[in-house]
Amino acid sequence: MIPFVDLKTQYQTLKNEVNEAIAGVLEKTNFILGEPVAEFEENFAKFCDAKYSVGVSSGTDALYLALKALGIGEGDEVIVPANTFVATANAVSQVGATPVLADADFQTFNIDLNKLESKITSKTKAIIPVHLYGRMIDMDKLMFIANKYSLPVIEDACQAHGATWNNKPAGSYGLIGCFSFYPGKNLGAYGDAGAVVTSNELIYEKIKMLRNYGSKIKYHHDIIGYNKRLDTIQAAILNVKLKYLNDWNIKRLHNARLYNEKLKDLKEIITPEITDESNRQVFHLYVIRAKERDELLKYLNDNGVQAGIHYPIPIYALEAYANLNLNKSDFAVTEQLSKEIISLPMFAELTAEQIDEVTSLIRNFYQNNQSTADYTIKKAKINFGLIGYGYWGPNFARDIEANPESQLKYCADLDVNSLLKVKAKYPSTIVTNDYHDILNDKDVDAVAVVTPTKTHYQIVKEAILAKKHVFVEKPMCYSTEEAVELVALAKENKVKLMVGHIFLFNPAVDYIKKSIDLGQIGKLRHMHFQRRNLGPIRQDVNVMWDLAPHDISMALYFIGQMPTSVIASGETFLQNNNNNYDVVSATMKFTNNIVVNMIFSWMDPIKIRDVTIVGDQKMILFDDVSPLEKIKVFDKNANIIENTKDVSFGEYQINIHGGDISIPAIKSNEPLKEEISHFIDCLKNDKKPFTDGENGLAVVKVLAAIQKSLDNNSAHIQI
Fold first, then answer.
1. How far is Cα 112 from Cα 75, in angstroms, rounded to an integer?
2. For the segment 537-571, what is each residue's pLDDT rounded down to a tens digit?
């Protein structure tokens, strides 16, 4: 039997210290607010980088008292995650306020901050983010939004003891941080217990009174209070265990990495992302997403592994919150996660042998379960429907027909002349001016959507619901909310969703990525993208939405992360709609001081399509317009000479290194052909597309942030 958490083993390692601490309380009989409580409060405040800590009776009571201290009650609204334990919402309900649920982000499982502002109303009085499973939400972005609307933040850090964001611990960002010491937590008591942390003295004094009948001095009750005190015995136990918490968290992280390594090539599951040390996760729970989740869970339980689900029923679906009249379609990500997530055994004392046993069972389940074959297409040739035969359509038709594993069964377009051209070139292809004919044909396996972007969302959504695999041209759609919905629908309907970020299939881009990953250019510093004079002006779209997806997808691919912020400016010269910019300049900032500059224009006399990548050792120029010399590698860098950076007056002394320019041979593979071949391979072998829906969603998130900056006079937008 492999337990979900092994408190017995933990106790055996601390037995003498714990017993001595408990005996000390019994000896002094100071069971209520005895000296160990004050000692723990001081120690835990330091651990959380806060000025004050108040020990209370549970994590739920910590949240309740935080809300009461802020005067939140009847008629107020508090934003909480839809994807969390019910206690977060319960605390809001207990003070008489209304919990307003926000959907989750697929990667972090925490609140999707891109959806947060839409939940804020005149009644909103606070935001409670939950650092779910021990991973902190992006607190810089959250605090930016909260400060914008003058809203206090109460951190629900009940699962995040010791987690950090940008090296700041959980509980130290918001006005108040709330913790649970339920026995199974990373820092667990031997019963219910909790704590509030804050650096605000007034909040601290008020919560101290609220937990103890509204009293500072015995029998002097200045406000209506409660009996929500931390027991002295629990405080004594927590004082012992707090000394070991950092070591336990390190072991949990090690175990999570071991799980990820042993499960990394199993296509039926998605393992949790592990962030860098500055954004340290403490893995209160190790949660995977799995195909055939319920069957896998039963298989693990039947074979002695105590796996579980956290949480199987979202808050909006609970009977207790039926009065909110919420629709699950408004929480597409949370709904999807609730059907896929499994929590595997996770505790500091978990052994490598136990992890090996759990992961071996997972592998055995998928190897022996023949239903996974349903996710592959066994036909000799995949039947494609092409929707749109305009600018890109002819190229798609050509490469679909040229591939020996696919054929173009249908083509839909509103233009009759286009359909005549299709019929003349591909006589066996069925043509139609109604794409629903394609979606209604059960023999069609996949569709390629090559229509104007404004139609993508509706067509792709209908195609997914018709159980068709979908390849959609960039960008996937025009809003983050639509993109999230499409990703969730694709997962729910078990179809592949691939986005046409064609440059990621360019051999030159692959060369650059390998050079960066191998450290051949040194530390990344700066990138500059230009995309200018690329064709006719699109009067129905801003130049940025039409041209930028290529370069954004490359930047995210090269750097391997999302930007932290964007700022953009633009101008309209030729179009009637002032929001359809002809020239846009955008800057993206990433962690590690990486800056990416981009310019997009329909108004330049020459065609420019290039990227410059600057490292501290070498620099690379990718010129896509060049017929032969696609890549130039410059053996050149510039660095400040040591001890001259902090001079008070004068110029820095620069050490300049200049060297040869090399021009590597780049394969001439045609990217669209490679892209379509990859999609077909994913369909035949049940692989995750390289540029899948989540890849498309990431690009749409950046585009939406750039658009927001443009709409708000070049405002700095956090992502």
1. 25
2. 666 677 889 899 999 999 999 999 999 999 999 98
Measured CA to CA, the distance from residue 277 to residue 712 in angstroms comes to: 34
pTM: 0.61
What is the rounded average pLDDT for all residues in the chain?
92
Name the 3-class secondary structure at 386: strand
Neighbours of 587 (CB within 10 A): 18
Asked if 583 and 543 count as a contact pair (C-beta separation under 8 A), the reply is yes
Amino acid letter, residue 281: Q
Which percentage of the chain shows pLDDT scores above 70? 95
**595, HSE (Cβ side, Cα atoms, 13 Å):** 4
Closest CA to 453 of 329, 387, 541: 541
Question: Considering only CA atoms, which of 32, 35, 27, 26 is closest in space to residue 230?
Answer: 32
Angstrom distance (rounded) from CA 434 to CA 413? 7
DSSP state of 688: P
Distance CA 226, CA 56 (A): 11
Q: Which residues contact 576 (CB under 8 A, 6 or more apart)?
A: 539
CA distance 693 to 695: 5
Query: What integer pLDDT is reported at residue 373 of this predicted model?
Result: 40
Residue 652 has pLDDT above 60, yes or no: no
C-alpha 243: how far from chain center: 32
Overall average pLDDT of the 491-520 stretch: 93
| SS3 track for 346-370 | CCCCCCHHHHHHHHHHHHHHHHHCH
| 409-412-418-424 Cα dihedral, nearest 10 degrees | 20
**Out of 92-101, 178-187, 654-663, least confident range:** 654-663
CA–CA separation, 594 and 585 (whole Å): 17
Cα–Cα distance measured from residue 311 to residue 342, given in angstroms and rounded to the nearest whole number? 9
Q: Which residues face 408 on adjacent strands?
A: 384
